[in-house]
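debug: dumping io for the single-chain case to check the tokenizer round-trip. Nothing else runs in this session.
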Amino acid sequence: MDKYNVLITDKALGDMNEIYTYIAEILKEPETAAKQYDRIADSIEKLNVFPYRIKVMDSEPERSWGLRQFRVDNYSVFYLIENKNVIVIRVLYSMSDINKRLTENEF
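debug: decoded output
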């Protein structure tokens, strides 16, 4: 079975840190924040095997980019596959305006 390198962009890592900070400091739930962070990180790590199991998004321009999305609880992980690399570009709260955030921000 082929293994892929999983890379997390600075932007995606920043997203994960913002999620942690919001839950830990604003909601005052540091234990919950750590568990949520770990669930997202664990799900991302599993992309090293068969990352094509998640289909390319149907919306444009995400489809033409080859962008894939999956959910972890209330968060969406967005990634691309290039050669043997899985590149996680964003981790966003699923109830936010995802299309706007994806197109207005650089990966």
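debug: round-trip ok. The CA atoms of residues 34 and 42 lie 12 Å apart.
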